[in-house]
Each structure stands twice: as C-alpha cells, then as structure tokens.
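Subject: sequence -> structure tokens, single chain

Hey, anyone have a minute? Need the predicted structure for the following. Not urgent.
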Amino acid sequence: IPNFLSELMFIMPSNVKVTSIDIDKNGGVKMEAESGQYAQLGFFVSKLKLAEVLKEVDMEVVSDSGNIKIIVSGVMP
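Reply:
Had a minute. Here:
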C-alpha cells in the first residue's frame, strides 16, 4: 500500500483531487476523484494505466455538474 500511494502521488495532476481510496484484502482499489476539467481526469486515468500503478483500470463518471466526479477501480500489480 505505501508503494501504491507513493506512485499515486507522483502521477496525479495538480488539479485532480482524490477524495477517497478503498483497498480490499485482494489488492482491489476503488478511488473517488474530482476535477473541474474532464481532460485532467482522463489524463490521470491514463497515467494510472501507462505507469502500471493499477491493472484492469475502469472509470465511471458519477457527476458532471460543477466539479466532475469519477470512480476509478483497478487492482494493484
């Protein structure tokens, strides 16, 4: 978990805010993130995949009024 959080810190764009992180016993991760720019959230999810911070990455848009909120899920390598 410490390595995951460290890697997350280095790839996160400055205008993306992670509001919650849940990690289960099997290494499954579910994060809520928000930003005023959809492109920055897309960049964040792409970096998660390309840097292999998470595998099997999936994204779901929760709200697009005001700040855009997404749920990102995946598995730690």
